[in-house]
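Milestone M4 deliverable, item 7.
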Amino acid sequence: MKVIFSEDTKEFLLNLKEYIAQDSPSRAKQYTTKLVSRITSMLQHPYIEKINATFDDETIREIVLDGMKIIYKIYPKSVAVLMIYRYIDFDESSLIKK
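Output delivered:
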């Protein structure tokens, strides 16, 4: 299954890498590369993870990994990582149109 990262997700990963690089550039590269690899690997079987309660859609699911919540959408031949965020700092209800 092909895994596609949204622009917001790419920006999050770049910001994370820059933040870690303040202490150790080599560790920053190693960590973000490993994180992307782990996400890609986990999403080879996207229906295993739980449905995201906020969106309540069979095709929108989530993974919690290293203190981050990864929200993704399943398409017939691919999976799109929509967003990654530190789930303890973010209120998903703000994403819902009222």
